[in-house]
Write a structure and sequence with these properties.
Layout lengths: L1 E7 L4 E3 L11 E9 L3 H9 L5 H8 L7 E4 L4 E8 L6 E8 L3 E6 L4 H9 L10 H14 L2 H16 L6 H34 L10 H63 L15 H22 L20
Parallel strand pairs: 3-7
Antiparallel strand pairs: 1-2, 1-3, 4-5, 5-6, 6-7
Helix pairs in contact: 4-7, 5-6, 5-7, 6-7, 7-8
Length: 331
Amino acid sequence: MIRTCTCLQDGTIKYDVPLRAVKDKNVKWYWVDFSNPNNNEAKQLSKVFHFHPLAIEDCLDGFSQRPKIDFYDQYFFIVLHALNVSSLDPYEVDLFINEKYIVTVHKKPVRELNNLWDQLKKKDSASQSPFSIMHAIVDKLVDDFFPPVYQIEDRLNVIEDNTEEETINELMDKLFDIRHEMSKLRRSLLPMRDLLYRILHSDRMSFLKDQQLYFQDVYDHLIKLVEMLESYREFSADVRDSYLSINSDKMNNIMMTLTVITTIFMPLTFIAGLYGMNFQYMPELRWKYSYFVVLGIMFLIAAMMFMMFVKIGWLRFGRRKKKKKRLIKIK
């Protein structure tokens, strides 16, 4: 689908103008949006606008491009990432832009573009330009990353508190899912941050000085998002290491208890095995009180070893008071 929006010299905004009419002399600037274009619509990128074949290929191929900016003689080609909030998967939004027009290409509906498209009717069109629209698009796409990032912090705090008393395995599964989601977000945010840095510091975009403060604000948001994700990665690593240490300590205590029990029964098993041999001539076999004496000796050995293990701290009784230690929360 192709839709057009034109701003006339007198500031009037008109929608759904024929594609060939957007270049009329009375048009101050225009915005053409290609939403999931078919083959015939995609050909207009070359026939009407004469964009470079490599840029068109980046728009239409099935591979998601990394956020970037390419400089051509008459225009700039910019690749942005929009966020699918439900899956946290990015999808591509491409912009062709110069002082006269902005052309957007995307294969999936972009809520931010639709909202901005409708808002042009309400805004002062005289103050609008392709680059102000570009800023609004970038700003709205970046703002969509904040809610998922804040949710990650909340989920990490829930895992750290473990109020539902889930098992270590369940917590580890959730933690690794969160780290996977953070990796998805970083793959979009880091290139977007580099892209904004190039826009702010490129000599070829020096004419954006009037709007530099606005793009600097978006760049600051991206820096904040990246720093938050880096902090959460460290925080998640601390939580993971803490739970792994707790799990390892529990396993060590279990193995120590089993080892102590096995050690206590070793001499008892030896005595039982010794007197369980079917030799006919064994001194104690025919004694009247042999059974009770051997049982007493076995009980005495077990009691002595048990007291020894308790004394050296290998066996502990009673529940320890749980002291809930919280890790440092990230603000």
